[in-house]
Design a protein that fits this description.
The protein has about 210 residues and is an alpha+beta fold. It folds into 2 domains: about 15-145, Glutaredoxin (3-Layer(aba) Sandwich), CATH 3.40.30.10; about 165-205, Antioxidant, Horf6, Chain A, domain 2. It is about 30% helix and about 20% strand. The protein has 6 helices and 11 strands. It has helices at about 25, 45-60, 75-90, 105, 145-160, 185-190; strands at about 15, 20, 30-35, 65-70, 95-100, 120-125, 135-140, 165, 175-180, 195-200, 205. A 5-stranded mixed sheet has the order 5-4-3-6-7. The protein has a 4-stranded antiparallel sheet with strand order 8-9-11-10, covered by helices on one side. Strands 1-2 form a two-stranded antiparallel sheet. It is elongated. The protein starts with 12 loop residues before the first strand and ends in a 5-residue tail after the last strand. About 30% of the residues are buried. Bound molecules: benzoic acid. Benzoic acid binds near residues 38 and 142.
């Protein structure tokens, strides 16, 4: 059955471009982003991997480990990384899983046979320090992902893990937030003594509490 939010991210061992890993052990106490790309030596994937490498300091700052995957093997990934360095102006600075036998792709339901029966789609899984799946996004092979959006969601996930708030449409770190629907006004008075704005009884906004 397909993975759903709140499920435990399946554990696995795999060869990567940075050596063998045991996934949960490799994650440790960090957040994780596991993402698949359909195939090595392909143009959209080349741009994505270069961009993720440039974002590495942003992921590090958020205590997030990033790991890529495709159904090609590690030797192929390593050869391709030379091209990525040459064309994208950055070395690939995170591990890439070689999944030629599709073990991990199948565990995470990354092959959608009605789209392509051998290659992975562009899956993104964000995994919390509790090893639970916090976000799943799936893009078709023809559409490169927006990894700034992945960072934006991670900011929301990390904030809402610590405070009883939710983030509104197009929210960005630093914008006002919404008091969680399950929080009564009485509880909100304790949680947010600095106060809030009641737009409607169910829509209460306040400045981001950790700012
Ligand atoms: C690409 O990365 O450009 C790509 C890979 C597989 C199918 C289509 C596009």
């Amino acid at each position: 059955m397909a993975l759903r939010l709140g499920d435990t991210a399946p554990d696995f061992t795999a060869d990567t471009t940075q050596g063998p890993i045991h996934f949960h052990q490799w994650l440790g106490d960090s957040w994780g982003v596991l993402f698949s790309h359909p195939k090595d030596f392909t143009p959209v994937c080349t741009t994505e991997l270069g961009y993720v490498a440039k974002l590495k300091p942003e992921f590090d700052q958020r205590n997030v480990k990033v790991i890529g995957l495709s159904v090609d093997d590690v030797d192929s990934h390593l050869r391709w990384e030379g091209d990525i360095g040459e064309t994208q102006g950055t070395e690939v600075n995170f591990p890439m899983i070689g999944d030629a036998d599709r073990t991990v792709s199948n565990l995470y339901d990354m092959i959608h046979p009605n789209a392509n029966d051998t290659l992975t789609v562009r899956s993104v899984f964000v995994i919390g320090p509790d090893k639970k799946v916090k976000l799943i996004i799936t893009y078709p092979a023809s559409t490169g992902r927006n990894f700034d959006e992945i960072l934006r969601v991670i900011d929301s996930l990390q904030l809402t893990a610590s405070y009883k708030v939710a983030t509104p449409v197009n929210w960005r770190d630093g914008d006002d937030v919404i008091i969680g629907a399950a929080v009564s006004d009485d509880e909100a008075t304790t949680l947010f003594p600095q106060g809030w704005t009641t737009v409607k009884p169910y829509l209460r906004t306040l400045p981001q509490p950790n700012r």
